[in-house]
Amino acid sequence: MSNKPPINPNKVVVFSGAGISAESGLNTFRDANGLWENYPVELVATSKGWQQDPGLVLDFYNKLRQQSNHAQPNQAHYAIADLEKTFDVVVITQNIDDLHERAGSSVVIHLHGELNKARSSLDNDLIYNIEEKPIHLGQKCELNSQLRPHVVWFGETPLHMEKARKHFLDAAYVLVVGTSLVVEPAAGLLKKARYKAQKIIVTLDIDKIPYGYKLLRGRASSLVPAVCEQWRRG
After folding, report:
1. Which of 8, 120, 132, 147 has its CA 20 to 30 A from that of 208?
2. Could you report the per-residue pLDDT of 2-32, keeping only the tens digit for each?
């Protein structure tokens, strides 16, 4: 007897990656051989980099935050948000920007953190909304530890994985957008989708298509609105 929950025929899970943000002008670390905005990833996206030069890391994310907040959602973001008129929609994203929220999506789970938040270097549960403000060296939490970006760096554990897994288990529709599915363990969540669910991947860059998924190779801003409209029409 299966212990899986019944499929919710009105539920859509959207799993998004860097490709959807790239179409709004935000670069990804995979764009140029391990460089992210011209910085080596190990300097700005690892705990070791943070320990070696926290000032450099803070400057990097302050600039990235500014860039992100000037970017605008694209047609894919808006189409996903618009699905809420018809379905219960949960967005599970690997992205640290807030473009899904600004497009109007009301339930967004960030697996890799959020640029517009800071957290304590000592206690991961001490999280602060900073919006567009920078984090400065010497800016501390109530535990007297330096504030750091609320971002999951390489080697750190993604956030909300169990919650995300449960959402995949009862979704009737799964839309994967703008990800190459090489970042684990997040990419492994796709295996939790049900056999009977409609499962579509929209991306430009992918080597292996997960079992049971249909690939639409192309730009998210072009293809996602059409997929969403098709699902809304039934």
Report:
1. 8
2. 578 999 999 999 999 999 999 999 976 655 5
- Asked if 12 and 176 count as a contact pair (C-beta separation under 8 A), the reply is no
**75-82 helix and 220-233 helix, angle to the nearest 10 degrees:** 20
Active site residues: 112
* CATH number for the domain formed by residue range(s) 1-25+73-112+158-234: 3.40.50.1220
Residue 69 corresponds to which amino acid?
N
Asked whether the predicted pLDDT for residue 1 surpasses 50, the reply is no
Q: For 132-141, which contacts have Cβ atoms below 8 Å and span 24 or more sequence positions?
A: 132/65, 132/66, 132/69, 134/58, 134/62, 134/65, 135/58, 135/61, 135/62, 136/58, 137/54, 137/55, 137/58
Burial 30-41 (b: 16+ CB within 10 A, else e): beeeeebeebeb
> Do 30 and 24 touch, CB atoms closer than 8 A?
no
In tens, the pLDDT along 110-138 reads 999 999 999 999 999 999 999 999 999 99
Is the pTM of the predicted complex or chain greater than 0.90? yes
d(CA 182, CA 210): 12
pLDDT of residue 183: 67
Domain boundaries, the chain: 1-25+73-112+158-234, 27-70+115-151
